[in-house]
Amino acid sequence: MKIKTKLIVAVGTLFLMVFLLAALSGWYINQLKKDTNSILAANYNSLLYTRNMLLALDELPRDPQAFIRFQENLTKQQHNITEVGEREATGAIAAYFEAVKRDPDNTAAKSNIRKASDDLMRLNMDAIALKSGIADQTAEDAIIILSVAGVLCFVVAFTLLINLPANVANPIRKLTASIKQIAAENYRERVHFSGGDEFSELARSFNTMAEKLEEYSESRLDDVLQAKKRIETLVDNMHDPVIGVDEHRQVIFINEEALKVTALRSADVLNKSVTELALHNDLLRDIFKDVDTPATGQQFDYTIKIYADKKQSYFEKDVVDINIVPTGEQALKYIGQVIILKNITPFKEMDLAKTNFIGTVSHEFKTPIAAIQMSVQLLRNDRIGSLNGEQKQLLEGIKEDSDRLLAITKELLTMTQVDSGAIQLNVHESAVVPMLEYAVKANRVAAEHKQVVLQVTVGDGIEKVWADNEKTAWVLTNFVSNAIRYSHENTTVQIRVDQVGHRIRFSVIDQGQGIEPKYIDRIFERYFRVPGARRGGTGLGLSISKEFIEAQGGEISVESEFGAGSCFFFYLKSA
Ligand code: ADP
């Protein structure tokens, strides 16, 4: 039965029962009222009239008004005949009253009136007794019938009270529990309600939904598993070692290549804490260095040396933070990191070969260039023979070119020494002024040639700096040489030394062409030259400067306004 029908039937039955109870009570009360009314109207009044008649009779004949009172009560009694025999008795009273009216001293008639009155009273009293019995019976019937109806109402109401809430609440409770199961992804949950009510219909819809969800989740799980396998295979087949760690710094995956390189088994690494692994394995310590939690948002690039493939191999470490936006949320959540080791050994080998080649070539070039310069020097000497103007000009050209060739060769040689690690730093307390003097002296001719004024300013009290004076002087020379080269004629190049906190800042400021903002970031890259820059350079000077300064623990940078000039500067620790 439907819940709605059930409720209608239950409440309807209760309503009917209450209505029946009220109707029965009303009927019985009415019945009892009728009984008492009939006693009052039919018998009590007759007794009253008879009594009044007897009182009036006693007054006769002394009180003439008594006749009237008797006649009035007699008339009333004649209109109130209700019992069997009452008519006859009343008739007798009326007949004897006629006799008394004619002869007020007729005692026989009076006595007959009394007798008839007596009969009349007895008749009515009997009737009262009888009717009272009937009323009692009605009252008893009412009590029984109303009690039965009341008990019936109570039983029905009690049954409904016990069953009806449970009938509605139990299925809802069951359904709520099942919905919670579905929310917890237990899609096998089903509900079963017997009967054909709304809940059974709801249960059917619920079961259909659960079935579809189950089917969907299984198919999705299948897809997810397949996608997972695909990604695992992909990661496994990558030629670069890849290791994944979760947000708790536990290794969650490691590919074949990483296992090969580290000579470990996956069981030794998987689900192990990074800290614990780093403790027992030097290589893993290097690999997991800077694998941090929580995420810093930084990416690290390192070169790690690993003995792999039966030779020394070089790997560039790249640590990538993995952040996701969880479903239903908006903020990014850090869920781990992926460490990718890029095998850069072939590039390193090529780089080394190139460095060696450049080193050898520049070294081999130095001797012939020196010989050329020597010959030029000799040719310029008048003792060997005088040259005409045109020959002298050609000789000057050869000198300039050989000078430039020598400078380039030296720069290339320095670069190869930096690359191969052949350069040894000698950092100690170095006097500032000699380094400045060296840079100015080395560039004096070029400055004069271009009419550029070199202005040196040293801050008060600055004398010494922690530096390798040779390398620092080289950098300053390079800065000044660039400043002159990229300055306009008749301008000033400032060389400043200032104290900034615990550091000393060396700046070379020119009023030249400046550098376009888009090239600023690349200016310290090896072989980089601003497109359209004056020819003759190698693009190596600034990159070597950067290596020299950073190797001493310093910092190098540039500020430039395109068209207005540049300021190249570096910081070193003050001594
Ligand atoms: P180069 O031998 O070409 O001077 P550098 O490494 O010294 O090589 O400089 C790289 C490039 O930076 C130069 O080619 C030039 O375009 C730019 N540059 C360097 N110094 C200055 C400067 N003072 N003003 C403008 N551009 C400069």
Describe the structure.
It is a single chain. The protein has 575 residues and is of the alpha+beta class. The chain folds into four domains: 3-169, Four Helix Bundle (Hemerythrin (Met), subunit A); 238-343, 2-Layer Sandwich (Beta-Lactamase), CATH 3.30.450.20; 349-420, Helix Hairpins, CATH 1.10.287; 428-573, Histidine kinase-like ATPase, C-terminal domain (Heat Shock Protein 90), CATH 3.30.565. It is 61% helix and 15% strand. The protein contains 15 helices and twelve strands. The chain has helices at 3-59, 65-78, 86-102, 107-183, 198-236, 256-262, 266-269, 274-280, 282-288, 345-380, 389-420, 432-450, 469-485, 517-520, 541-551; strands at 242-246, 251-254, 300-308, 311-324, 333-343, 428-431, 453-458, 464-467, 492-500, 503-509, 555-561, 565-573. It has a five-stranded antiparallel sheet with strand order 2-1-5-4-3, with helices on both faces. Strands 7-9-10-12-11 form a five-stranded mixed sheet. Helix 1 (3-59) runs antiparallel to helix 2 (65-78) and helix 11 (389-420) runs parallel beside helix 15. The longest helix is centred in the N-terminal third of the chain and has 77 residues, at 107-183. The radius of gyration is 64 Å and the shape is rod-shaped. The mean pLDDT is 88. It binds adenosine-5'-diphosphate. The site of adenosine-5'-diphosphate has 21 residues, from helix 13 and helix 15. Residues 227-282 form the PAS domain. It is an enzyme of class 2 (transferase). Keywords: ATP-binding, Kinase, Membrane, Nucleotide-binding, Phosphoprotein, Transferase, Transmembrane, Transmembrane helix, Two-component regulatory system. It is found in: Membrane.
